[in-house]
C-alpha cells in the first residue's frame, strides 16, 4: 500500500513540474487533490485495511498528502510572482525617451477669418454665399456689368489675359458674380460672393496682383437706397463696433446708378482724424450703388418691376486696416513670420 502512495506522489510531482500556468495548475490540483481526485480515490482503499497495516498506510497517506499540498503551494507562489514580474516588465516606462513636441496647430489666414465673420453676418440676414470661377469670361467680368468692349472703364481694371483664350480673363473683381447670380437664382435675390481677384499691377506696398473681395447683391420689388444704407451700416457696425457710422458719397461705377463710395468712421481715432484716416476721420472701405438697369436686363430681370443694390469691398484692405499692415504684399507671401502674428 505504501508503494501506491509513493507512486502517486511521484506522479503528482512530475506532473507539477511540467505545469507553467496558473490555469494548468488549477486543473492539476482538481485531478490530484480534488474531491474525486486520485488522492481521494486511494484514501477510500484505506477503509478496507485493518490493524497495523491500516495505521502505517494512514501515516504514509498523510505524509504524502502534506508533501503534495506543499509542492502545489510552492508552485503556485512561484507562478504568481513570475506573472507579476511579467506585468511589471510590460508596464515599464522608459523615462529616458526623448520628448517629441506635438506639431504646432495652425490657424486660418487673417483674410479667411474676416471672410468667415462676414459670411456669418450675412447668412444671419438671409443672404446666400456664392462662389464663381477665378478664370472668368470676358462677358461676365466686363460686358455683363455694363463695361462693353473698348469702353474706357476697362482701363481701370487691367488684368491677365490668357494666351490662346481670347475671351477669358482672370477676374478683376467679384462683380463678375452679379449676373451669374441673377441668372442662376432669379428674384428675389440676396447673395454675397467672397473670392480671389487679380489685376495686372506693377506691385508696390499698395498694389498686388492677387487680392480678395466680397460682393453683395440684393434684388427684389421696391428695393431702395435706404435698404442699401441699412445693410451697409449693419456690416460696418459688425466690423468696427456699434458707434460706427457710414457716409455715402457719389462715385461712378459702370454697373450702378447712382453709384457711391462708402466710408466708415475711422475706428482708430473714432472720427477725430489720425494718420490711418489721413486726418479725415473716415475710412473708404466699399463701393456700392443701385444696380444699373442694363445689368438687371443681362441677368434676365425686368428693371420696370425690380430694383436692387450691389456693393463690393476689399477683404484684403479690411485686414490691412484692422491690423495696421503697411505692405499689401505680406498677405499673399505665405511667410510664416507674418502669418504667425494673427
Ligand atoms: N467692383 C468694384 C471694384 O472692384 C467694387 C464695386 C463698386 C462693387 C460698386 C459693386 C459696386 O458692387 O456697386 O472696384
Order of helices and strands: HHHHHEEHEEHEEHEEEHEHH
How are the strands of the largest sheet arranged? 1-5-6-10-9-8-7
First-residue to last-residue Cα separation: 94 Å
Relative strand content = 15-25%
The number of strands is: 10
Count every helix, treating DSSP H or I runs of 4 or more residues as helices.
11
Give the overall silhouette. Answer: rod-shaped
- Helix-strand category: alpha+beta
Task: Summarize the biggest pleated sheet.
Answer: 7 strands, mixed
Low-confidence parts, pLDDT < 50 over ≥5 residues?
none
In angstroms, what is the radius of gyration? 44 Å
Helix content: 40-55%
Which hetero ligands occur in this complex? 3,4-dihydroxyphenylalanine
Mean pLDDT: 92
Briefly say what this structure is.
By secondary structure, this protein is an alpha+beta fold. It is 41% helix and 20% strand.
Structural features, described:
This protein is of the alpha+beta class. Helices cover 41% and strands 20% of the residues. The chain is built from 11 helices and 10 strands. The strands form 2 sheets. Strands 1-5-6-10-9-8-7 form a 7-stranded mixed beta sheet, with helices on both faces. Strands 2-4-3 form a 3-stranded antiparallel beta sheet. α1 runs parallel beside α4 (51-90). The chain is rod-shaped, with a radius of gyration of 44 Å. The model has no long low-confidence stretch (mean pLDDT 92). Bound molecules: 3,4-dihydroxyphenylalanine. 3,4-dihydroxyphenylalanine binds at residues 173, 175, 215, 253, 255-256, 259, 287-289, 310-312.
